[in-house]
Amino acid sequence: MGALQLVVTAFQRMKNSIPAGNPHVFSHFLRSQNSNQNLSMKTISILGFVLFCSALGAQTVNQSGNTSALPDSTPYRTVERSASSAVWQRQTYQQAPNGTIVTNTESYVEVATGLNHLSGGKYVPSSENIVISQDGSSAMATNGQHQVYFPGDISGGAIKLVMPNGHLQRSQPIGLAYFDGSNGVFLVAVTNSTGALLPSGNQVIYTNAFAGLKADLVYTYTKAGFMQDVLLRQQTPDPGALGLNASSTRLQMITEFICAK
């Protein structure tokens, strides 16, 4: 039996022993008890008062600590864009000491080359994805500050690159050559090769793109630029056997720019 229940039980027994109809008997009964009983009742009464105050205090703490439900923080969203930056913001909430809900704005700035591009007169996020044309004859990357168009066959077509300022550059890979600083030797020429989109989504590969050498051409489109790489799958000839200085010989990729405006 709990302490509070003992107090209630004692109080109930005392009340039952008081004759009915005399409103003053209860106080007279308390005064007429012997000293031991008075001490016992005072102890019980004090205990009941302490328990009552403790319960009241607990109730006060619970009421003061009952904060209002705060709204969830909003997700980050862009509020401003430029060619190479984006401002992201979100709102968070907290409760002030007076109980009011305070809104805080958190923000950061994302910076990257080619992050956004103009579309319809406003900046929108750039994308590095390359898409294949509906007829499958070519591929293109057009959702960036620069655009690239890929031919179906690297030998029969040119790479078209539209610069951010609108200038058009056409390029045609020619072949691989050695150069030791003084002399050069042409090794292999580009041959017929059909392009394929790699799983990365931003790369086009022309396999076996060189006649007489197992090597591929790989083009990579990014928001910040455009790259052409040669993937060698076979050892190239010894430069010394071709009359070159092997210690200073470099392998070169020769690319012709047909027209630049």
Structural summary, described in words:
The protein is built from 3 helices and 16 strands. α1 (3-16) packs across α3 (35-64). The protein is 20% helix and 38% strand. It is α+β, with helices and mostly antiparallel strands and 261 residues long. A hairpin with a 3-residue loop joins β1 (77-81) and β2 (85-95). The protein has helices spanning 3-16, 25-32, 35-64; strands at 77-81, 85-95, 101-111, 116-119, 122-125, 131-132, 138-141, 147-151, 159-162, 168-179, 184-189, 195-197, 203-206, 215-221, 226-232, 250-260. The protein folds into 3 domains: 3-64, no CATH class; 77-111, no CATH class; 124-260, no CATH class. Strands 6, 7, 8, 9, 10, 11 and 16 form a 7-stranded antiparallel beta sheet that branches. It is elongated.
Features:
single chain; 261 residues; alpha+beta; seven-stranded antiparallel beta sheet
Question: Nutshell version of this structure?
Answer:
Helix content is 20%, strand content 38%. It has 261 residues and is an alpha+beta fold. Strands 6, 7, 8, 9, 10, 11 and 16 form a seven-stranded antiparallel sheet that branches.
The largest sheet, given as strand count, sense and whether it forms a barrel, is: 7 strands, antiparallel
Rounded average pLDDT: 82
What series of H and E elements makes up the topology?
A: HHHEEEEEEEEEEEEEEEE
What count of structural domains?
Answer: 3
> How many helix segments?
3
User: What structural category characterises the helix and strand content?
Assistant: alpha+beta
Assess the beta-strand content as a share of residues.
35-45%
Poorly predicted runs:
18-66
